[in-house]
Amino acid sequence: MFIRQTRTGNKATGESYLTYRLVRTERIGGKVRHGTERRACAQRFVQMVSGALDGQLPLMPVNFLESHDLRAWLSEFPDHAQRGSGLGDLSIVHDWQRLCHQNRARRVYIWSLDNHLAAYDRAPEL
């Protein structure tokens, strides 16, 4: 993921202004290979999202969860990225944990072709 800054012009007034977009990217055939690069990239991402949550950047987080929940995820993200997983995977794991808590009498698992996610499989508690 990265934040794209674009300079745009207002056709009516001729004024220019900046727009910012959070862009998700995917590398086909792999991820950031070097562990220190992976961690540094994750830490830059944490700084950017934290700045948006604090109102320091002209970005606004999507209202899909509470900011304190996202902050907790962000504190885990660099270690998670070090293992080769992204923030999307981390959010899936947290959703799995929430569903396990809400559905104790049911089997809860992550259906995924990624082995590290497919390992999340909890039997029903009787």
Task: Describe this protein's structure.
The protein is an alpha+beta fold. The chain has a domain at 86-126. The chain has helices at residues 35-53, 67-82, 87-102, 115-118; strands spanning 2-9, 16-23, 108-109, 121-122. A two-stranded antiparallel ribbon has the order 1-2. A hairpin with a 6-residue loop joins strand 1 and strand 2. The longest helix has 19 residues, at 35-53. The protein is elongated. It starts with a strand and ends with a strand.
Provide a compact summary of the structure.
With 126 residues, the protein is of the alpha+beta class. Helix content is 44%, strand content 16%.
Q: Topology, please?
A:
Layout: E1 2-9, E2 16-23, H1 35-53, H2 67-82, H3 87-102, E3 108-109, H4 115-118, E4 121-122
Antiparallel strand pairs: 1-2, 3-4
Helix pairs in contact: 1-2, 2-3
Question: What amount of the residues lies in strands?
Answer: 15-25%
- The dominant shape is elongated
Helicity, in percent? 40-55%
Q: Give the structural class.
A: alpha+beta
- Rounded radius of gyration (Å): 18 Å
Distance between the termini: 41 Å
Order of helices and strands: EEHHHEHE
Biggest sheet details: 2 strands, antiparallel
Helical run tally: 4
Strand tally is 4
Whole-number mean pLDDT: 77
Order the strands across the largest sheet as they lie in space.
Answer: 1-2
Assembly annotation: single chain
Low-confidence stretches: 26-30
